[in-house]
Amino acid sequence: MITQIKDSVKEIYENYDASHDFQHIERVLQNAEAILETEPTADKEVVRLAALLHDVSDKKYTDNKDNENRLIDSLNISEEKKDHIREIISSVSFNGGNQLPAKTIEAKIVRDADRLDAIGAIGIARTFAFGGAKGRKLYDNHEEVRVKMTEEEYRSKSTASVTHFYEKLLLLKELMTTEKGKQMAEERHAFMENFLSQLKNEIEGRA
């Protein structure tokens, strides 16, 4: 079943830019497997399926949940597990700080796994890949970083890529929910801070 869903979701993710392609899904799965090793009570099948499906109806790329509903309905699992997967998917997105609570250990694992792929070296690469696909500035020293915003405000304003670090990425370390996720986030967070420091020096002609 996992193999079947992988083949199905690959076709969907091929329509997205490099920041949310199937390689992103493979890395999220890899992160989830690392966290699963420290969470023996978690339902591995639910975690893997939710990780595979969590972006098929991403609001950045589509206005409906047709793909998500179609693929979940096709799974040969109980209705209870299907509902659980839907709940996990709904709790993954950051939504400008307005994320829904991750109520189960499976939801916490998938959310941490996805957020780990938003930070560190790969997070930096993905941020600029998405910004490039959307025609955003690399940086804007005059742009105000928003501390509080609605989901609509978060999604509607095309901020510079560097601004996104301060509005989301640098916040994620403290939002990790599993112990393994917290440990994995430390080095990635520090790498982003070093990158931004070097970038600032280069922008200002001090490096």
UniProtKB/TrEMBL annotation:
SMART domains xref list: HDc (SM00471)
Domain HD span(s) in chain numbering: 21-119
InterPro entries: HD/PDEase_dom, HD_domain
SUPFAM superfamilies the UniProt entry points to: HD-domain/PDEase-like
Protein name, entry field: HD domain-containing protein
Signal peptide (UniProt feature, chain positions): none
One protein family per Pfam: HD
